[in-house]
Amino acid sequence: MIKEAIGLGETEVEALAAACKELGLETHEVEFEILESPGKKKFGLFGGTPAKVRAYVSVSPADIAVEYLKGVLSAMGGGDIQVEVTQNEDGAVINLTGEHVGMIIGRRGETMDALQYLTGLVANHVNNSYFRITIDTENYRDKREKTLEILGRKMAFKAVKTGRNFSLEPMNPYERRLIHTSVQQVNGALSWSEGENMNRHVVIGVDPKLKRPNNNNRGPRRDFNKRPPFNRDNRDRRPPQNVQTTPSPDRKPRVDGGDFSLYGKIEKTNKE
Asked: Phi-psi bin for 208: left (phi > 0), alpha (psi -120 to 50), beta?
């Protein structure tokens, strides 16, 4: 995208300075072309035309995004926040640092998500092509992802254990996808989305195909209120010496849910 401005002045230098001022740039930061040279006045008093200079600079979607974001941050009272941009093939990551970055995050990252959405819209209007903008601060998004992964597994195990459904708070599509991916690693647990728009949330429950143990055939129930008769031979209830009371070192812990790491790579799914 080309950003340009046309300046007028009595000389080419003054016209260039006027164009650069409109762009908010210095003269060494732009390229320019002289459209019209100044016309001389007749008898030094009448007529004459000013010089006209076109100053221009090529800007990327990331440049437009940063310019827009700085304006919004200044209006929010965060003018001291530092903006650092890292560009990649299909987008850019904008990292914010400063004393007041807390107000940029908002409740569970909602304010930062809104800024990211608006900044992305502005960046994608540059070349009418998709340009992904990600706004982060102090690795908040990585920390949030790990928290959601742990939450998804925890609620999945709880659902399998209790046989109940658990509804989580409303989340955006990306966060719901993280929850779905975590639940898939727990045997016997299912997750799905309910609600519309801002109220759409994840529900975690039990897979109806899960075979639960039948505890109806336990035999006669013991009456704990009835004390057993006293027997002198049973006073010493220590186990015999030939019975092993410690767990075998060869016993391996049972892994429920397959080979899964909370801090591993998350595979994307089509499920929201």
From this structure: alpha
Structure tokens at 245: 């009371």
Evaluate whether 97 touches 138 at the Cβ level (below 8 Å): yes
pLDDT digit string (tens) for 23-52? Answer: 888 888 788 888 888 877 665 555 678 888
CATH code: domain 141-206 is 3.30.1370.50
For 231, other C-beta atoms within 10 Å of its C-beta total 7
Where along the chain do its domains lie? Answer: 2-58, 61-138, 141-206
User: Which residues are 36's β-sheet partners?
Assistant: 52
Q: How far is CA 225 from the centre of its chain?
A: 57
Query: What pLDDT score does 9 carry?
Result: 86
Length in residues, the chain: 272
What CATH number belongs to 61-138?
3.30.300.20
Q: What is the DSSP letter of 125?
A: T
pLDDT tens by residue, 79-124: 788 888 888 878 899 999 888 788 888 888 888 889 999 999 988 8
Cα–Cα distance, 228 to 2 (Å, whole number): 93
**β 132-136/91-97 pair status:** parallel
Query: Measured between alpha carbons, how far is 168 from 176 in angstroms, rounded to an integer?
Result: 10
**What's 270's DSSP letter?**
S
Distance CA 11, CA 19 (A): 13
